[in-house]
Amino acid sequence: MTTNQTSGGFIGDLAEAFAPPAAGGCCGAPASPSPASDTAQQADAVATACCGSTSAAQQAAQAGCCGQAPAPAATPAEAASTGCCG
Amino acid sequence: MTSTMPDLPQAPGLAAVVERVSAARMLAAVHELARGRYAGRRVGTPGGRAAAAWLAEQLRELGAEVELDSFPVTDVRELYATPVLEWSAGGQALRLEHRRDFVEHLATADSPDPRTAPLAAASEADLRGRWVLAEAGDWARACERAEAHGAAGVLTARGTDAEGWMPKMIAGPATRAVPIIALRTDLHARLADALAAGPVRVTASMPLRQISTDGRNVHARFPHAGGAGSGPRVLLAAHYVGVGDDPGMRFPAAADNASGVAAVLEAARVLTADPATRADLSVAFLDAEETGAWGSAHHAAALPSDTLVINLDGAAQLHQAASVEAGGPAHTLLATLDQAARLTGVPLRAGTMASDNRRYAAVGLAAIGIGVGMPGYQTPAETPDRVEADTLVAAARLLVASVGLLAVQTSV
Question: What top-level branch of life does the organism fall under (chain A) (predicted)?
């Protein structure tokens, strides 16, 4: 592992798991911004490895990843859910 | 992860059970699923079906009742040839490399034959028959103009991962009427500079089609002694599907999600070998996650409402803490996971897990998604050697401890 942390359990408030902050990555993969060196890359630095734009990255937590349309809803509740990265 | 864990008073013997997980078995499973014979395990492919068959065999060897459950999947984006992109300006030509320099935009029209045309800025009045260079982040508007004018296609910008790859996706927004190609951001800027300096000609193809196919979930139930019907109903899930190989380029999909599958399989092996763990345990190895979590959407509606779901998506590289997202009535399940993490020494934090867990939560089930890292995410660099043994062990122990604690809580 790349961590030296030995104590387990939640860091922070457990309840945050019900509304986690957007990690900026897809499917648990942390965001990997480009090694930005010019303006265009810096503008894209908050985009994720998979999402092509800042807005897509920002929407990834609430909507389908990377502009992906959600799969057909099986129930009304499901319509608010998303697909996932892909 | 080699230290002996302290036992919990309420779960005597659980620490010893947790320590039975085998890194060697999990690594072997990861290497197996990353083999060329599975071709990246894309939904509806012979490789994907071979992976499902292999997993079914593994589960049967553990004594499970196994079912292969098929369902239709539409709108899968299939790259069926290697695309071409090159430009010439000022007497010099530049040929670009797919997935390093440019990549398919998922809204692209299928454009198998290379087309050569002059390049135009998106703001120009006449775009007919020309490739259009969209401003970064403005591909949709450029696309509308390109379609209205009968342009050759659109070039937009996209970043790369830390290793310079442009990850592969196989589902996306509605297909447009023109080819759309995403160019690496620095090359996009360079192309804009070239256009500002003089005429540019672009030759490009994008052989990406939209197909319908069938997905195949692998469901297993373990009717071991004291198990079925006598404890909490727990489902351990992980998707086995990958994005599939490119023509001429392997995508081993070791982290996403052979690693998660390996950890779930190992957890099931350990739990079912322990007669003291009184849980009604099921396992789902899911297809079609990469195309919008269709496999879990299909499965979720058929599950009893008291099913507790733990979905693992990525168990390859624990960095600081595993990401956890909860949905549905999962408060007790989440508290149990926290307790299991303390027992096993796995740090957790709230983090977005846009994976199959959301499908289960969406139908009202208590569902938790866990992510423990995906080095090389959906690129050719997602190789089995990058899947960390310690992370696999941590993930599998966390699952075993969670189910063990759930069983204890239900029985008291």
Answer: Bacteria
**Closest Cβ–Cβ partner in B139, B289, B292 for A64:** B292
| Nearest Cα residue in chain A from B170 | A86
| Model confidence pLDDT, tens digit, residues B130-182 | 999 998 778 889 999 999 999 999 999 988 888 999 999 998 888 999 999 99
Q: Domains in chain B, start-ordered, CATH in brackets? A: 14-74+213-411 (3.40.630.10), 83-206 (3.50.30.30)
Residues with Cβ within 8 Å of A4's Cβ and at least 6 positions away in sequence, in order, are none
Answer whether A81 touches B (CB < 8 Å).
Answer: yes
Mean pLDDT of B20-28: 98
**Is A52 among the domain residues?**
yes
> Residues of A numbered 39-78 whose beta carbons fall under 8 angstroms of chain B's beta carbons: which are they?
39-41, 43-45, 47, 49-50, 52-55, 60-61, 64-72, 74-75, 77-78
> What's B97's DSSP letter?
P
The boundaries of the domain holding residue A53 are: 36-65
Residue appearing with tokens 């129930």? A75
Closest CA to B108 of A63, A67, A61, A40: A67
Query: pTM to 2 decimals?
Result: 0.88
Nearest CA in chain A to B330: A18
ipTM of the modeled complex: 0.87
Please give the Cα distance from B287 to B105 (Å, whole number): 23
Distance set, CA B224 to CA A71, B55, B65, B191, B273 (Å): 35, 19, 10, 63, 9
Taking residue B318's Cβ as centre, other Cβ atoms within 10 Å add up to 25
For the ranges B2-11, B234-243, B275-284, the one whose mean pLDDT is highest: B234-243
Of A15-19, B41-45, B169-173, minimum mean pLDDT range: B169-173
Domain count, chain A: 1
Look at chain B and count its residues: 412
